[in-house]
Design a protein that fits this description.
The protein has a six-stranded mixed beta sheet with strand order 9-10-8-13-14-15, with helices on both faces. Strands 4-3-5-6-7 form a five-stranded parallel beta sheet, with helices on both faces. The protein has a two-stranded antiparallel sheet with strand order 1-2. Helix 8 packs across helix 9. It starts with 21 loop residues before the first helix and ends with a strand. Helix 4 links the parallel strand 5 and strand 6. The protein has two domains: 170 residues, Rossmann fold (3-Layer(aba) Sandwich), CATH 3.40.50; 174 residues, Alpha-Beta Plaits. It has twelve helices and 15 strands. By secondary structure, the chain is of the alpha/beta class.
Length: 361
């Protein structure tokens, strides 16, 4: 934005001199907490090199706000990221104001923070530009402290509603993608992530291993101890898997007592090893009941996709192959790990390798 000559505006009041009329004080004296965000003060970050502007805006603290005022815009984005103000008041006469507006709008943390830009009342072009570049609103100089109070109050009200809406959306998104018993991904979200990881594996040329694990004798556990104990078994298994999950792994509850663990970048040998380590760890879980405690076991089916060996493989094909391996583990007595190579659906070239022999652990 073009720097303004607002700092020489003769209409400004001297620094430190209150211009809030007595009737305004009387109107708000009984509700001096109006600039709050729920149970806490509304946080106002002021960046303006004019002492009168900073002094005037600090008076918002009389009405419940927490004001942090400075005269330079250095590291404004970093400051806003750390302080998380509810509103920023920015001097539009600063040469870097335009760039700062764009940076604040582009940063995912500071993007939701409304910005009020202070500009001269005659600078119509500057106000239009500020709004186009992401400002929430403008304060025109010389401004009346009562106007500032009303505008900041309105901004905080809007910000409060938007924050509540974002929290609600985040809650609904989590509700739509997570399993209520374990807080893991649910089946739908898990399948979406599987498609994404398959595409990444194809493009990157790295392996993707898929583990399907199933609790052995789960129906019998429910029949003997009840569904409450059965739910506890499922939660305990989820906890053990999460303790071994890497940051890039994907874990979800596929249905009932079945879980899926996706291991990007993990080849066949390591996937089988990780599956067996998990199987051993699960065998050490003690499930308490009124009749004493008992241990559980799991069966695991494993399949690993590799672009160079299997060509274009569907996500469903990889999951189905791991499920077939799980079925074989159940057939072989449970409490074991079985590996099956994916079937070649679309070979890269004639004579591409097919299924390898089954490996049992």
């Amino acid at each position: 934005m073009t720097p303004l000559r607002a700092h020489n505006t003769p209409d400004r009041a001297p620094a430190g001199q209150s211009t809030v009329p007595e009737e305004l004080h009387l109107r708000v004296r009984s509700s001096a907490v109006r600039l709050r965000m729920g149970s806490r003060p509304g946080r106002v970050l002021v960046v303006d090199d004019d002492p009168w502007v900073r002094t005037t805006l600090r008076k918002l603290e009389q009405f419940g706000a927490q004001v942090d005022a400075g005269e330079t815009a250095s590291n404004l984005v970093e400051t806003a990221r750390a302080a998380r103000p509810d509103v920023i008041v920015l001097d539009g006469a600063m040469p870097e104001a335009s760039s700062l507006l764009k940076q604040l709008g582009a940063d995912p943390v500071t993007h939701p923070i409304p910005v009020l830009v202070v500009l001269d009342r005659h600078d119509v072009e500057g106000r239009v530009r500020a709004l186009e570049e992401g400002a929430f609103d403008c304060l025109t100089l010389p401004f009346h402290p009562g106007e500032v109070l009303a505008r900041v109050e309105k901004v905080l009200q809007v910000k409060s509603r938007e924050d509540a809406l974002r929290r609600r959306i985040a809650f609904l998104e989590e509700l739509a993608t997570s399993d209520p018993l374990t807080s893991l991904l649910n089946r739908r979200a898990l399948e979406e992530r599987l498609y994404l990881e398959m595409e990444r594996a194809r493009r990157g040329g790295h392996p993707l291993s898929c583990l399907i694990l199933d609790i052995d004798w789960f129906k019998e556990i429910n029949d003997r101890y009840g569904h409450k104990v059965g739910d506890d078994v499922i939660r305990q298994l989820a906890k053990v898997v999460l303790e071994r999950k890497r940051d890039r792994d994907v874990v979800g509850r596929y249905g009932g007592e079945e879980f899926v663990w996706l291991l990007p970048g993990v080849d066949k040998a390591l996937a089988v090893e990780m599956a067996d380590l998990l199987r051993r760890a699960v065998g050490e879980i003690e499930i308490p009941t009124g009749e004493g405690s008992f241990t559980i076991t799991i069966s695991v089916g494993v399949s690993t996709y590799q672009w160079k060996e299997h060509g274009r493989q569907s996500a469903e094909g990889l999951l189905e192959r791991a499920d077939q391996a799980l079925y074989q583990a159940k057939e072989q007595g449970k409490n074991c790990v079985v590996y099956l190579d994916p079937l070649v659906e679309h070979p890269l070239e004639e004579g591409a390798p097919g299924q390898t022999p089954v490996d049992n652990v």
